[in-house]
Recover the amino acids of this structure.
């Protein structure tokens, strides 16, 4: 009897594993087809200057509409793309497309617009990220200083001489470096000393409850102070209400992103914001 139960348990587990593997395979194949068919998209979330309310740039965020027409969240397919190595080609596409779009905004006269692109660790390990960035800038004509590369702490703590030298070469192109989700990884602060990082993006797990949680406020205050003493800028992620915006501004945080200002939007909507309306929360006067 015990043996039978064990076997059933095992079989259940096995079936569960198969479903998981199958799902990943399905995602992987679908993603491959989408990349080939050119149906992947980028949305762009405004990055707002907290002192003026103006949109100074955007973060490019990948969007994939599955065959049923529904968006599949990046949190579900990026890990699959990383596991299969597909993230290297996807990452190249993202770099090319984001630079092309930003160069258009520049050509329309919005020459201050910056675009931030998320990079995966695998693009450093398996890809030639340096060549990809050079190509994306060359093909689009976008100046390097208009491009920010967002890296996670996990890329930086790997700390191989190869990663460090690639990052130094990227900096020579004038591109800016931001640490994404700052505070959630193994924050070895030593890389801030060794690498010419420009920006810390404070993870939304510290920002979401800022107005209600004094511990979060203390952490954000400390990060902003440290960043400024190192000559870095700060971006708060996940700002969802006016009180949080107000407190971040009072704490001296430089920039912010979040649903309070705007969700990630199709390029055409960013173009419209640039040309006419501005953001809903943009004050008539600075200050
Ligand atoms: P991330 O780089 O930290 O991007 C910020 C995420 O927070 C985005 O989720 C954005 O839609 C979401 N967000 C923005 N404002 C708010 C807010 O006020 N509240 C809440 N709750 N969320 C907000 P998204 O687009 O689902 O992307 C998730 C993650 O997937 C990104 O996190 C990034 O790590 C990864 N990702 C997205 N696009 C790319 C890409 O092109 N390449 C790579 N390698 N990773 C990407
Ligand atoms: Mg990011
Ligand atoms: Mg982030
Ligand atoms: Mg995040």
């Amino acid at each position: 009897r015990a043996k039978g139960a064990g076997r059933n348990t095992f079989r259940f587990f096995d079936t569960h594993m198969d479903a998981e593997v199958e799902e990943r395979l399905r995602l992987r194949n679908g993603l491959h087809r989408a990349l080939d068919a050119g149906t992947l998209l980028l949305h762009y979330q405004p990055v707002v200057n907290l002192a003026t309310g103006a949109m100074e740039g955007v973060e490019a965020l990948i969007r994939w509409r599955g065959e049923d027409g529904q968006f599949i969240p990046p949190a579900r397919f990026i890990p699959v793309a990383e596991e299969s190595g597909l993230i290297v080609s996807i990452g190249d596409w993202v770099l090319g497309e984001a630079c092309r779009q930003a160069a258009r905004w520049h050509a329309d006269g919005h020459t201050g617009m910056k675009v931030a692109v998320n990079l995966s660790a695998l693009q450093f390990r398996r890809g030639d990220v340096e060549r990809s960035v050079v190509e994306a800038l060359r093909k689009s004509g976008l100046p390097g200083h208009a491009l920010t590369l967002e890296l996670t702490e996990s890329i930086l703590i790997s700390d191989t001489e190869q990663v460090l030298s690639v990052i130094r070469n990227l900096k020579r192109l004038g591109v800016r470096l931001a640490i994404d989700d700052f505070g959630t990884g193994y924050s070895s602060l030593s890389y801030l000393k060794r690498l010419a990082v420009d920006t810390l993006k404070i993870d939304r797990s510290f920002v979401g409850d800022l107005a209600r949680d004094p511990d979060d406020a203390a952490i954000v205050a400390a990060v902003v102070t440290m960043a400024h003493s190192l000559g870095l800028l700060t971006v708060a992620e996940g700002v969802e209400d006016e009180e949080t915006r107000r407190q971040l501004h009072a704490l001296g945080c430089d920039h912010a992103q979040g649903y309070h200002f705007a969700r990630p939007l199709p390029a055409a909507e960013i173009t419209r914001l640039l040309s006419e309306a501005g953001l809903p929360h943009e004050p008539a006067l600075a200050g």
